[in-house]
Design a protein that fits this description.
InterPro entries: YlbD_coat. This is Cytosolic protein. Pfam families: YlbD_coat. By secondary structure, this protein is mainly alpha-helical.
Length: about 130
């Protein structure tokens, strides 16, 4: 038997939002927007943004307390669905990127202090360079 994949909580919420606002589905069917674009806007802007007013019928404003609960449930759902290996990989990538930037900055600082670029590559890696007189 195949297991049906469970949808991410944010995708499930978006589907509920579309069900409450069927004009959004008509917009996609007419080719004026894509599901991906609408989902990203919904995810970033939220349900109560004025961007969605064109698709709403008569709807009452939800209480602020309920919106806070929705936000917290979204955050908790996202935390529950985090893959520790994936997070570790992203942290590792970020660390490598920071190291690369530091390396470039070090090279530029070396040029500014009077050293030629060729000297940095050929010189031994010692913290202090002493010359004999």
């Amino acid at each position: 038997m195949e297991k049906k994949k469970k949808l991410h909580p944010s995708v499930q919420k978006f589907k509920e939002f579309v069900a409450l606002n069927p004009q959004i589905a008509k917009e996609v069917k007419s080719g004026n927007a894509t599901w991906q674009d609408l989902f990203e806007e919904w995810y970033l802007l939220g349900e109560e943004d004025t961007r969605w007013d064109a698709y709403r019928g008569e709807r009452k404003e939800q209480p602020v307390v309920e919106n806070k609960k929705d936000w917290m449930s979204q955050v908790m759902g996202a935390i529950k669905n985090l893959d520790p290996d994936q997070v570790q990989g992203q942290i590792s990538n970020l660390s490598q990127a920071i190291s690369a930037v530091q390396s470039v900055l070090t090279q530029f600082q070396g040029k500014g202090s009077g050293g030629a670029p060729g000297q940095m590559k050929n010189s031994p890696q010692h913290p202090f360079s002493f010359r004999k007189d």
